[in-house]
Amino acid sequence: MKNKGALNLFKLAAVFFTMTASLTFCACTKGQDAPRTNSQEKPQILTSSYVPYTLVKNIIKDKADISMLMPPGVEPHSFEPLPKDILKVAKAPFFFYVDRKLEPWAYEIKKDKALALAKGITNNSYTHLWMDFDKAFLMTKNATYDLQKFYPELEPYLNANLIVFEKEINKLKEAYTNGLKNCRFRDIYHIGHLAFEELAQNYKLNFKPLVNSSESQEPSPKDILEMIKQIKERNIKYIFTEEALPPEMAALIAAQTNTQILMLYTIEHITKEEFDRQITYQDFMYKNLENLKIGLECK
Could you read off the pLDDT of 221-270 as tens digits, one per residue? Predict the structure, then answer.
């Protein structure tokens, strides 16, 4: 995947030069590198995008004020922070992001101060780690430990919520195992990229994306014709797309193959309405399961 969000080092140097005075002043007045100044204040948590937002929210709930750097509707793969974004991250007591591979710009801004949810998790070259339920739990567990370091008084509360989240993850795993056990089809024809590869492997499905690398790659006419050919030959009735993709390509292939289109959610791209409704990681993954059961004709 192209690291479009990675910051140019010269740009970083220029921005940090303008920030030095204010950040130095903040460090001197605090006296300690602690994320809070008043024990009565709620923790202020900044996340890069909705994936870390929803995972951390499962644990901290209303005990903290959580915000996202990228507003709803922004494409995270091509995101490049503006100077105001860099300053916001630099000043944030907590900044959670997924990892350096998916969000290199986050690492460059904050380095050792940024909290990568995927630290220590083997990713097997996949960037969408949260599509593996065990890895989503480990990411949330990492966030729990990071919060406990600075807020030891919240440790029982955080641990209790982590236990609840683990139970919910186990229910999701069971639902996927049972729901995708007996399906007429096991091939997922997806008008998108490799976001769901690991999910498919975990449940013995064959993930067939139109694009085999990043979202920014354009499918070739050969790729499109080959997918249309396979769908017709195998009498596929449903194809899948993802929330951030323009609908035209899926509509074109659906028209050529007389298929219906179903959505699979990467959870990276949310609308303002979805954010306002606080649709959770679990909610999105259950939606994915229901659409997979329909599209693969599972009993």
Answer: 898 999 999 999 999 999 999 988 889 999 999 999 999 999 999 998 88
Q: pLDDT confidence of 91, banded at 50, 70, 90? A: confident
| Residue-range domains of the chain with CATH | 9-175 (3.40.50.1980), 180-295 (3.40.50.1980)
The answer to whether 194 and 213 have CB atoms below 8 angstroms apart is yes
CA distance 139 to 118: 5
Helices (H), 151-220: 155-179, 197-202
Q: Is the dihedral angle over the CA atoms 8, 10, 14, 20 positive or is it negative?
A: positive
The alpha carbon of 156 is separated from its chain's Cα centroid by a whole number of angstroms, namely: 27
Helix/strand/coil (H/E/C) assignment for every residue in 68-92: ECCCCCCCHHHCCCCHHHHHHHHHC
- State how far the Cα of 111 lies from the Cα of 60, in Å rounded to an integer: 23
> What CA–CA distances, in Å, run from 288 to 154, 179, 204, 293, 296?
33, 11, 16, 9, 12
Residue 78: the pLDDT is 73
Buried b (16+ CB within 10 A) or exposed e, 209-237: bbbeeebeeebeeeebeebbeebeeeebb
User: To 10 degrees, the CA torsion angle through 159, 97, 270, 260?
Assistant: -90
What distance in Å separates the CA atoms of residue 117 and residue 98, rounded to the nearest whole number?
Answer: 5
Tell me the three state secondary structure of residue 242.
strand
At 190, give phi and psi (nearest 5°).
-120, 125
Alpha carbons 12 and 78: distance in angstroms, whole number: 18
Of 168, 174, 112, give the one whose Cα is nearest residue 140. Answer: 168
Residue 118 and residue 129 in contact, taking contact as beta carbons nearer than 8 Å = yes
pTM equals 0.84
